[in-house]
Amino acid sequence: MISTNDFKTGQTIIYDGNIYSVIEFLHVKPGKGGAFVRTKLRNLRSGSVTDVTFNAGIKLERAQIDKIMMQYLYADGTNHVFMNGETYEQIDIPKNQIERELNFIYEGMSVEVMFFNNSEVLGVSLPDKMALQVVETVPGVKGDTKTNAMKDAILQTGLMVKVPMFIEEGEKIIINTNDSSYVSRDK
């Protein structure tokens, strides 16, 4: 059991029969009344995000989530196949369960797959930032650099992002996986 006073970002809890990950939390102590904790939770089964307010000190069950490194192999219709590199066991994850994450993963890439109670597959865990290669973009135009001009670029995963004018095809760039934004060039 975990108290709402001990919440941390990324922590997993069981609430109303679902498994949630804490995205944000804020402890509030108003002048009148009892303290409470305002949270933003991501449902790990459906991917939806909800706002929930808990009274301070409420105990919730901690969800035991195991993360296993697996290699993304290929798409098979509406499923995506991942393989454990140690046991060579393969699992299928439905596209609707990892739709957002598919913008950042490519064949042969190793990612962490999340399991609940060592049996239920919850999805794929991505790092906050990833390096991906630019496969298509228009050439940069010399000149106006004061305005922070941006252009479209298509990455190796098919994701389109806005990048600065100096980025060219073939370069690797760092992308923020939370909001799909350009961070910097990869060194």
CATH topology of the largest domain: SH3 type barrels
- In total, the number of strands is 16
CATH level 1 name of the largest domain: Mainly Beta
Strand order of the largest sheet: 1-6-2-3-4-5
Radius of gyration: 20 Å
Coarse shape = flat
Secondary-structure element string: EEEEEEEEEEEEEEEE
- CATH architecture annotation name of the largest domain: Roll
What summary fits the major beta sheet?
6 strands, antiparallel
> What share of residues is helical?
under 10%
Flag low-confidence runs: none
Distance between the termini: 43 Å
Structural class determined from secondary elements: mainly beta
Share of β-strand residues:
over 45%
User: Into how many domains do the coordinates divide?
Assistant: 3
- pLDDT averaged over residues: 88
Number of helices: 0
Brief overview:
The protein is mostly beta strands and 187 residues long. It is 0% helix and 55% strand. Strand 7 and strand 8 form a beta hairpin.
Walk me through this protein's architecture.
With 187 residues, this protein is mainly β. It has three domains: 2-62, SH3 type barrels (Roll); 65-125, OB fold (Dihydrolipoamide Acetyltransferase, E2P), CATH 2.40.50.140; 129-185, Nucleic acid-binding proteins (OB fold (Dihydrolipoamide Acetyltransferase, E2P)). It is built from no helices and 16 strands. The protein has strands at residues 2-3, 12-15, 18-28, 36-43, 49-55, 59-62, 65-76, 79-84, 90-94, 110-116, 120-125, 129-137, 150-155, 160-164, 172-176, 181-185. Strand 8 and strand 9 (90-94) form a beta hairpin. The chain is flat and about 60 Å long.
